[in-house]
Amino acid sequence: MSAAASLSESQCAAFARVLDLLAERMAADEAALGDAFPYVTGPSGAWKTMPATRSAGYGPNGWDHGNWFCGFWIGLLLAAHVHSGDAALLGAARRRLDLIRPRAEDPNTHDIGFIFQSSAIPACHITGTRAYAELALRAAERLRARAVRTKAGSYVAAWGPLDDPRGRASSAIDTMANLPLLYWAAAETGDASFRDLGAAHARMTAGAFVRPDRSTYHAVEYDPESGVKRRGFTFQGAADESCWPRGQAWAIKGFAASAEADADAGFFALAEGLGRYFLARLDAGLVPYWDFDDPAIPAAPRDSSAAAIAASGFLDLARLSPDPARAAEWDARGLALLDALVRDYLVTEEDHRGILKHGCYSKPQGEGVDSAVLFGDFYFIEALVKLLHPGRFAPERPRRSSGRVA
Ligand code: GLY
Question: What is the pTM of this model?
Answer without folding.
Answer: 0.96
